[in-house]
């Protein structure tokens, strides 16, 4: 099935659904207490990126962002086949990798994460799996492990383990059964150490929308270097976040009762056009014909900041809006990114980790991507 994934890298958001480690509401449901919660503002304090000029500041397509162990900014630029490092002030430091099949070169880099010891791991499904660079930016090695299916959306975990999503395939009673999983891995093994979520469904090759909704768009998760893991369904009906230890033991369930938001007809058309166009630009064979849900997701994405606060982004809001909890599930405050309203706000990606908040738009209004540095007012 490896060749099948050559038409999927555009759809790297994350996945959802019921899993074998689900916790009952009676065991761990959180009293959110949102009536008097404070609203705070996220503001843009700086940006990196230009439309034309110095190639070290021109982005082809931002696929992932992270921080080095010293707090520098890392940007995975898929078309450029490289990871670009900047200072926190946005000054270019170095570029890791380039297009090619040689040592440290990439063909289709899809995911990136910094490991516990400072090394940087980059996944390239077309060029043999996981590559590692030292914190200094020097190329280290490519793992000898053969990854037949892509491990995507890398996030850090304890020591040098990482968490990602992958699909496995089996034929059962002449049906193709796909099992999508979120799991923790070691660098030198393709076998998961811990599985946090799984979803199995039958699929035929004529329905790519079912594959995307059942795996890549189905759930979102975040993890930190202390071993905390949170997984949420990307569901139009429920706002639920499940917490786990690194070993998969459940810790908390966070649930909010918020209203469903139906998409406008123009929003559905524009969303389908955007993802189908992006698939075509990344090499999809023939029309993709992705069909969006009629309602917006309740939960869009997750983050954990330096103060060990969990940020849950509402998918219902056009302006990026977060519910912020402590790791025990106590509601602390709401935060909103000002100046990004309207349907284009739904295409913003925001990365929150122990070094800060980074953001970029998948569909920028001015036609070229910038990386924005945000602060909480």
Structure explained in plain terms:
The relative contact order is 0.18. The chain is 8% helix and 41% strand. The chain is mostly beta strands and 377 residues long. The chain has one domain (2-376): Neuraminidase, CATH 2.120.10.30. The protein contains 3 helices and 24 strands. Mean pLDDT is 85; it is low at 1-32. The chain has helices at 25-28, 208-216, 265-281; strands at residues 38-48, 62-67, 73-77, 82-86, 92-96, 109-114, 120-124, 129-133, 139-142, 152-156, 162-172, 175-185, 194-203, 219-223, 229-233, 239-244, 250-256, 299-304, 309-314, 321-326, 331-337, 348-353, 356-361, 371-376.
How would you summarize what this structure contains?
The protein is mainly beta and 377 residues long. It has a single domain (2-376), classed as TolB, C-terminal domain (Neuraminidase, 6 Propeller).
């Amino acid at each position: 099935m490896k060749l099948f994934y050559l038409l999927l890298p555009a759809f790297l958001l994350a996945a959802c659904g019921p899993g074998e480690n689900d916790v009952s509401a009676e065991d761990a449901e959180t009293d959110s207490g949102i009536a008097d919660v404070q609203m705070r503002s996220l503001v843009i304090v700086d940006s990196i990126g230009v439309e034309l000029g110095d190639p070290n500041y021109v982005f082809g397509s931002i696929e992932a962002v992270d921080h080095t162990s010293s707090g520098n900014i890392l940007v995975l630029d898929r078309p450029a086949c490289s990871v670009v490092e900047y200072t926190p002030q946005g000054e270019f430091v170095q570029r890791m990798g380039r297009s090619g099949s040689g040592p440290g070169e990439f063909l289709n880099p899809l995911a990136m994460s910094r490991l516990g010891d400072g090394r940087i791991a980059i996944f390239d499904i077309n060029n043999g799996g996981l590559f590692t660079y030292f914190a200094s930016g020097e190329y280290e090695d490519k793992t000898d492990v053969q990854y037949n299916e892509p491990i995507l959306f890398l996030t850090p975990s304890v020591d040098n383990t990482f968490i990602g999503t992958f699909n496995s395939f089996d034929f059962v009673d002449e049906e193709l059964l796909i099992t999508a999983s979120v799991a923790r891995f070691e660098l030198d093994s393709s076998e998961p150490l811990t599985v946090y979520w799984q979803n199995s469904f039958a699929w035929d090759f004529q329905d790519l929308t079912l594959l995307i909704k059942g795996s890549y768009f189905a759930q979102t998760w975040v993890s930190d270097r202390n071993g905390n893991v949170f997984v949420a369904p990307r569901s139009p009906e429920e706002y639920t976040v499940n917490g786990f230890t690194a070993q998969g033991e459940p810790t908390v369930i966070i649930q909010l009762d918020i209203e469903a938001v139906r998409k406008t007809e123009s929003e559905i058309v524009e969303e389908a056009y955007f993802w189908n166009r992006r698939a075509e630009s990344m090499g999809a064979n023939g029309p993709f014909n992705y069909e969006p849900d009629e309602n917006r997701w309740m939960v869009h994405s997750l983050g954990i900041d330096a103060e060990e606060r969990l940020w849950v982004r509402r998918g219902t809001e056009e302006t990026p809006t977060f519910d912020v909890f402590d790791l025990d599930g106590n509601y602390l405050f709401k935060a909103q990114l000002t100046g990004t309203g309207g349907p284009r706000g739904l295409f913003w990606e925001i990365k929150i980790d122990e070094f800060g908040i980074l953001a970029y738009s998948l569909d920028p209004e001015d036609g070229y991507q910038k990386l924005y540095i945000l602060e909480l007012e």
